[in-house]
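Friendly challenge for the regulars: who can give me the structure tokens for this chain first? No prize, just bragging rights.
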Amino acid sequence: MEKRNSLRRSGTTRRWWGLRRRWRMLGLFEINQEHEFYSLTCLMKEGLHAALQTSIDTPGPDELSAEHYKSEETQVHKDYEMQTFARLVFSSLRHSLDIKEEEYKRSLSSDCCYLQFMSNSKSKADFFLTNDKRFFLKTQNKREVKFLLSNLKAYMDHLEKYPHSLMVRFLGLHSIQVPNETKKYFIVMQSVFYPDERIDTRYDIKGCEVGRWTDPASTGSPVKILKDNNFEGKHIILDQQRSWLVDQVEIDTAFLRSLNVLDYSILLAHQPLHKDELDRKHSFSNLIVRTAKSMAQDSPTEEEHPTILLLEGDSSRLASDTIDSGSDHVQDTGEHSGHSTPSVNSTDAELWEFHAHHRRLLPNFKNSVHVIDGPELRYFVGVVDIFTVYGLKKRLENLWKSLRFPGRAFSTVSPATYSQRFCQWVKDHTK
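First reply, four minutes later:
Bragging rights claimed.
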């Protein structure tokens, strides 16, 4: 018996060390007691546990007010202070994504160590992942925090209008103040690449060429985030979902242009769809689940979403009028968004609303707002890094790069030019 237990422990140890080796290959390093960020991440986890317990104990109102966007709550701990910004706003966003507060708290304050994400990014920020790799934590400077808070209402309005937007989901904003040390701001985001078990290649796309190449064979950073020039000759194969992606990128970049923002990226990765996933993709039962997921992020009831009743009770109409089972689009049963709402019945009204908010049939998969299934590949897509404003510094940088790289496409251009070029890249590299 003792020998059997010893072998079992030995097998568990081997699996654990194998997992740690795999993390290192992906640029992930466990933040253990020897790590330089161990003390910081311990404070983050302890502070987040307390802050989220407050959110659980005092749920927010049904509607947000202007004061909720300005709120700052400070909790004093033994060796530091934790500040939480716009708590009820971010809690509302998590609720819309069907992220339960208890599971969010459990992930962020787990006894398991955070992971440090190392990449070839030029960002000076520090990146951490929860141990389950579901949520990213990124340090921010004060200017970025002020920018986000000043535009948080616009950001929330955009996600409410376009719930399937490709914009990264910010789930919390906090700061930690240790006596006699600089205040640390950090933001919690939903990871675009979750779950990532079968992802082996990632891209960061800006739609330009200067400085947009990463040598896949170079030494240094364990994980390689490839860039625009690495993607040349390749395409995102979506077939009938292509038009949705192109349109949504145009919608999201128009929003960013209105904020005078540039230098954002599309994070892109893919993995093959397994045969069982391909077989299940267009099954009728799966279509019902996907429609329920797509009509609302919250768990819908039949009374709230009569389209589910339509799917359960009228498969002939499903095939001919409502959903093309060979694609992930809902076909128009009325006029396009922007025109008068059909008044035939509640189902037609819901279908009109589906189009008006530019929804799609989400896959029956975790993190579905960032996942788009093509005929053979599953793509992970998200728009990130939205804090760079086209101010005086960037205008001077634009002038300098215009002289240094005449006739070439570089990242520092006006928001209008950046948006147009970004959208053109998506059109040129999708099929």
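DSSP finds 16 helices and 15 strands in the chain. The radius of gyration is 23 Å. Your move, everyone else.
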